[in-house]
Specification:
Order of helices and strands: HEEEHEHEEEHEHEEHHEEEHHHE
Number of strands: 14
Distance between the termini: 19 Å
Number of helices: 10
Number of domains: 1
Oligomer: single chain
Shape: globular
CATH architecture: 3-Layer(aba) Sandwich
């Protein structure tokens, strides 16, 4: 395990990192209440709504994680030319982005909203309002021009793919190329649909299901099975590094010379929503702050454990991660390859 003193030093450096986010933006909306009866019209529960709230989601949740880590950050995405897009713009303007916020307003699609209906802590239903077709060539030109103009001020890029239309094959490939030309670290939270477009990124952080489907393999039953899938992904996408999240089995990191396995910290899980955003945010910010990949893995694993113990889309602060470092942490298991 990396020394706790060293991990704390990295945490203190994270606010000096500069991380840009390119990805799909949306609102995460919650309608909360209680259920005490079944509808006489159909065999469904009747939710007595008591509270409604919303928070920026998708790539904006990655940004929110970076905000709560106190990083210098920026974001580029598309929204609808509608009231929800205006409200999202106004909300993100409160996050001290200065001129590092660029939302492309599109009249041909609504701003994506995911509405979750909650009875206490139980999700009853999710309703999505969206149009997910790929952006057209003209919009790709606008996005890539804005990206090239802004990316040079940052030392890391997170591509947050929720498959809502922004990240076409061209946008993904050009963004990676432009970032690598400027020696900017590129991390990708992938979607299966675009899996083979992320060639040349520095690291990708799929979960096991995404990794298997993306490379066309069946779900692994062992560490050896995960390693075979990882080798195929790294070879096909020319990745120097790969981090596969494994739910209750923790994380597995792979590079050319070795693999590293880290089990989860035992805790009660309330909600896994947004945990992947937290993992890639902390991992990337740590790397941008001088951490090794093993050190970034430990810190992102701790942060992911913090957010799944919270209800709803949440983040982990530097202070919270630092407090967790005082608790016993699982040991890394390193295998030479």
């Amino acid at each position: 395990m990396p020394e706790k003193k060293r991990l704390k030093e990295i945490l203190q450096k994270i606010p000096s990192s500069r991380v840009f986010v390119l990805g799909d933006l949306m609102w995460d909306e919650y309608v909360r209440g209680d259920v005490s009866r079944i509808s006489p019209e159909a065999p469904v529960p009747v939710l007595l709504a008591q509270k409604e709230d919303r928070t920026p989601g998708g790539a904006a949740n990655v940004l929110k994680n970076l905000r709560d880590l106190k990083c210098t950050m920026g974001i580029l995405g598309v929204v609808g030319a509608d009231e929800n897009g205006t409200q999202l713009q106004h909300e993100l303007e409160k996050w001290q982005l200065q001129d590092n916020l660029h939302l492309v307003r599109l009249p041909d699609r609504p701003t994506t909203i995911k509405t979750r209906f909650m009875a206490r802590n139980q999700q009853l239903l999710r309703v999505d309002k969206e149009k997910t077709g790929a952006i057209d060539t003209k919009t790709e030109d606008v996005v890539l021009h804005a990206f090239e103009k802004r990316i040079e001020k940052f030392n890391a890029l997170i591509i947050s793919d929720y498959d809502k239309g922004l990240l076409t094959s061209r946008v993904i490939k050009e963004a990676i190329r432009l970032a690598k030309e400027k020696k900017i670290f590129v991390a990708v939270d992938p979607q299966v649909k675009h899996f083979r477009d992320y060639v040349g990124a520095d690291i990708m952080t799929p979960n096991e299901k995404e990794a298997c489907e993306g490379i066309g393999e069946s779900f692994p039953e062992s560490d050896e099975g995960v390693e075979k899938i990882a080798d195929k992904i790294r070879s096909a996408l020319k990745l120097s590094h790969l981090l596969i999240t494994r739910s209750q089995r923790g994380m597995a990191y792979f590079n050319e010379s070795h693999s590293v396995y880290l089990p989860t910290v035992a805790r009660e899980v309330f909600d896994v929503t947004g945990a992947g955003d937290t993992v890639i945010s902390v991992y990337t910010a740590a790397i941008a702050s001088g951490a090794t990949h093993s050190e970034a893995m430990v810190l992102s694993n701790i942060a992911g454990g913090i957010v799944v113990a919270k209800l709803g889309t949440q983040t982990a602060s530097i202070n919270e991660i630092e407090r967790e470092l005082e608790e016993p942490t699982p040991a890394l298991r390193i295998k030479q390859r």
